[in-house]
Specification:
- The chain is α+β, with helices and mostly antiparallel strands and about 250 residues long.
- The protein is about 20% helix and about 35% strand.
- The chain contains 4 helices and 12 strands, in the order βαββαββββααβββββ.
- It has a 7-stranded mixed beta sheet with strand order 1-2-3-7-6-5-4, sandwiched between helices.
- Helix 2 (about 75-90) packs across helix 3 and helix 2 crosses helix 4 (about 190-195).
- Bound molecules: biotin (BTN).
- The site of biotin has 22 residues, from helix 1, strand 3, strand 6 and strand 7.
């Protein structure tokens, strides 16, 4: 985003998905830096076509990106967003964030945030725009998280150093931290933070690719956000958006 981009924030009480809503605005000509956030989503979307639990109690936000060079690297944008979200949360909360490759933020071994970066193409295949969606659980939902996710999801509840206007402060902190990285994305120094906060590196993992399970050890993450995984045949570079990584000890 250039220096003269204005942050334009649109607040909705409810929508199906802020990513979907912002894509419509983008097609109608909205500018880079437009941010949509909602208090709840009725059809929040996650990676690989999954749904993302988004009822009351969260920050569900999407940022419109129009990269000048027409290049959209979802892995790098997602990694930059993960670093930005971690720094933003830690600036406002007494909590330490860890990052699970490629798009999840964890606190106390439970997921507190998911990130979904999506590109939209022109018919000729060139990039039209991209939408960066971020969902952060701020409070536990009334009655708690649903059974399917109650053991793996958490919220920032009670951790705020400044409870007043917490959601708006968090949104602004995420945006500002992300902007710093996005303006100079070729400088990959932020990947050092990403690697330091990774709780995947050094762990036995398995990844599911094209429906098949592969066992390996995660040895590193490179500056392009690709996971390096070692098995008996050597080191493989995992960069596909179609890969799910699970850590064996979670089983
Ligand atoms: C994941 O965990 O797989 C990614 C979840 C991304 C959720 C955010 S919430 C705001 C934005 N709108 C959506 O529909 N999804 C993203």
């Amino acid at each position: 985003m250039g220096d003269n981009v204005e942050k334009r924030i649109i607040h909705l009480s409810s929508t199906d998905s802020t990513n979907a809503y912002l894509k419509d605005l983008a097609r109608a000509g909205a500018k880079e830096g437009t941010v949509v956030f909602a208090d709840r989503q009725t059809a929040g979307r996650g990676r690989l076509g999954r749904s993302f639990y988004s009822l009351d109690g969260g920050l569900y936000m999407s940022i419109l990106l129009r990269p000048e060079n027409g290049v959209f690297d979802a892995l790098v944008i997602t990694a930059a967003a993960a670093v930005a979200v971690s720094r933003a949360i830690e600036s406002l909360c007494d909590k330490k964030c860890l990052i699970k490759w490629v798009n999840d933020i964890y606190i106390d071994r439970k997921k507190v945030c998911g990130i979904l970066a999506e590109g939209a193409l022109f018919p000729d295949g060139k990039l039209d725009f991209a939408v960066l969606g971020i969902g952060i659980n701020i409070n536990d939902p009334k009655g708690g998280f649903p059974d399917e996710i109650k053991d793996i999801a958490t919220s920032l509840f009670g951790c705020g150093k400044t409870p007043e206007n917490f959601k708006e402060n968090l949104l602004n902190a995420v945006f500002d931290e992300f902007l710093k990285l996005y303006e100079n994305l070729s400088d990959r120094a932020f990947m050092n933070f990403y690697r330091e906060r990774s709780f995947v590196i050094g762990k036995d993992i398995y990844y599911i690719k094209n429906g098949e399970k592969h066992f390996a050890t995660a040895v590193d993450i490179d500056d392009s956000g690709r996971l390096l995984a070692e098995d008996e045949n050597g080191i493989k570079t995992i960069d596909s958006g179609e890969v799910t990584v699970r850590i064996n000890e979670d089983e």
